[in-house]
Amino acid sequence: MRKISLGLLLLISSVCAISAEAPLQPYPVVLSKLPQQELGQVILKFMPDKNINRIGWDYKANDTSIVWLDNSYQEIDNGDGTFESSRKGVARINVNGVKSTYLKQRVYELPWSIMMKGERGKFGVNSVNFYPATASRENENVCFGEVYGNCDFKPFKSLVRSKITYKKLCEKIDNGINFKIAYLLSNKGKQDTFAIWSSSGGSGGSWTEFELYYNTNKNEVCKVVADYY
After folding, report:
1. Does the structure show a pLDDT above 80 at 46?
2. pLDDT in tens, 116-147
3. What does the alpha-carbon distance between residue 30 and residue 67 come to, in Å, rounded to a whole number?
4. Do β-strands 36-38 and 83-94 pair in parallel, antiparallel, or remain unpaired?
5. Is the residue at 218 inside a domain?
């Protein structure tokens, strides 16, 4: 009887070992040191405090939940009198507990890009965009296609959890996949901040992003929406 019980125990242990899956690790694994954050928490961080007049490239530079890939910012001269500046950070973000994924031999948690954007770098940041993507600067791949999962997200429940209220301002919708919708976000202690939730896609899938806009107004934000495709 003892032999049968021991054999059964070993069999159960073997089955459990075979069926057990390792916890989802971020890609690259070095990002494991970063904490998990809800999207709403991160958006709240980047909504300016009441006393802030201008968002510079050093905004949230010392936030230990973000790895910044640029020393300061990168500026591109388009050759037509216009410039584009950006600074990329990487964080581990989920939406209502759901993580984006990336298949590379095994399934990994896909981190998110926090992309600060502006025109001439010396004038500071105009917007910051949040979206799931690989943790690289020059060869970034956004969450789109067969090897990626959970690329689409709805931010609203996550915003509410962080005590952010939202009001729809304008929208442009091509179909259920391609759209831009502008909102005004509010939170006690923060400045009201404009945002655009957008989605792009086609037969290969779709991907979503959420972008905050600084030092602007409703007309300018709704023009961005109106000019979509």
Report:
1. yes
2. 999 999 999 999 999 999 999 989 999 999 99
3. 11
4. parallel
5. yes
Rounded to whole angstroms, the Cα distance separating 205 from 4 reads: 52
Q: Is residue 7 part of a domain?
A: no
Cβ atoms of 131 and 208 within 8 Å: the answer is yes
Residue 98's domain comprises: 22-226
Q: How far apart are CA 99 and CA 1, in angstroms?
A: 47
Minimal CA–CA distance to 111: which of 32, 41, 58, 40?
Answer: 32
What residues form DSSP beta bridges with 103?
A: 107
Residue pair 121/85 in contact (Cβ under 8 Å)? The answer is yes
Closest CA to 219 of 185, 197, 192, 194: 194
Highest mean pLDDT among 17-26, 29-38, 200-209: 29-38
The tally of domains found in the chain comes to 1
| pLDDT bracket for residue 18 (50, 70, 90) | very low
Asked whether residue 8 is domain-assigned, the answer is no
Average per-residue pLDDT in the chain? Answer: 91
- 46 φ/ψ angles, rounded to the nearest 5 degrees: -95, 0
Is residue 9 one of the residues assigned to a domain?
no
State residue 83's pLDDT score: 95
28 upstream amide cis, omega within 30 of 0: yes
